[in-house]
Amino acid sequence: MSYVQRGAAYARDSRYITTRITADGRDGFVVEPGRYRLVVSRACPWAGRAVIVRRLLGLEKALPMAVAGPTHDGRSWRFDLDPGGRDPVLGIERLQEAYLARDPGYDRGITVPAIVDVPTGKVVTNDFAQITIDMSLEWAAYHREGAPALYPPALRAEIDAVNEAVYEEVNNGVYRAGFAGTQEAYSSAYGRLFAHLDRLTERLSASRYLVGDTITEADVRLFTTLVRFDAVYHGHFKCNRQKLAEMPVLWAYARDLFQTPGFGDTVDFDHIKRHYYLVHEDINPSGIVPCGPDLSGWLDPHGRAALGGRPFGDGTPPGPVAPEEAVPSGSSPLSP
Asked: What digits encode the pLDDT tens for the residues 143-198?
């Protein structure tokens, strides 16, 4: 499968299934604990957002999670981490089966995160940007006690503006660089990416978090790109002006979040590296997965508390990760 189209700039296929699961069921799917299954891969930054938000809000029991393996082929993500290579609830080997159950002629990306309706086995949505917003708003009745306000009404306009720029220039920007098919497309993506990282550096020099004085949806969306930066984007995607560890403000900000319950304890660096270096065969034809970088720095003191702010606002941190959802030993500096 080719990810780089020679002679062309990268353009993401953004044709998502936008059906929503809501408290009032206005799209045909009502919020109901245990009815749906959130399918993710810990390798994917878009899925990583959903994993973090779900944990911060305490939705583990209301919205059970299936974790696909870190690699996929041209057909789809596979449940090769589960006994027999099948998801124990959905009974399928590939996420593709749930997409085709909804639409036998489905011809778009088989992406994660996706939410599947368990009774029918059909995908409801893969609209990653809306999924986490709806976790905050539509699933509010099932939030844990002390859940943070990740999308507070007074800050939504600013959060949306920050998210739009971060998505365009950073989240998707690293892909525009990595999958560029011409020197000009790569150089443009590279310049835009680091220009925006410089703007974020300036913003975060005086503020602990991106919007307001607590963690919001905006921090979650930036974090999932930053946490992958040195492991894959710096080398594999040629985003190499500097490593994250060489950008002091962003490095401290990322470590602050990583060390906050709900962030670093969801990150599997082994899955991240295996996905990018094994799946993108046209970029890395040898299939060699790098041994580095050294992960111990993620636990170094960050000093960001001096800027003030309260990570969870009037809420509280989430409790320990459930054993069945813990990142495997050795895959993260936080794993036992």
From this structure: 999 999 999 999 999 999 999 999 999 999 999 999 999 999 999 999 999 999 99
The Cα–Cα gap between 163 and 84 comes to: 39
Q: Phi/psi of residue 39, each to 5°? A: -100, 125
d(CA 165, CA 150): 18
User: Looking at beta carbons, which pairs linking 152-158 to residues 24 or more positions away fall under 8 Å?
Assistant: 152/212, 152/216, 155/211, 155/212, 155/216, 158/211, 158/212
Q: Which of 44, 99, 190, 276 is catalytic?
A: 44
Q: Which domains does the chain have, with CATH numbers?
A: 21-142 (3.40.30.10), 153-325 (1.20.1050.10)
Say whether 160 sits in a helix, a strand or coil.
Answer: helix
Active site annotation includes 151: no
Catalytic residue among 175, 190, 253, 276: 175
pLDDT tens sequence across 280-316: 999 999 999 999 999 999 999 999 999 999 999 999 9
209 catalytically annotated: no
State how far the Cα of 184 lies from the Cα of 306, in Å rounded to an integer.
42
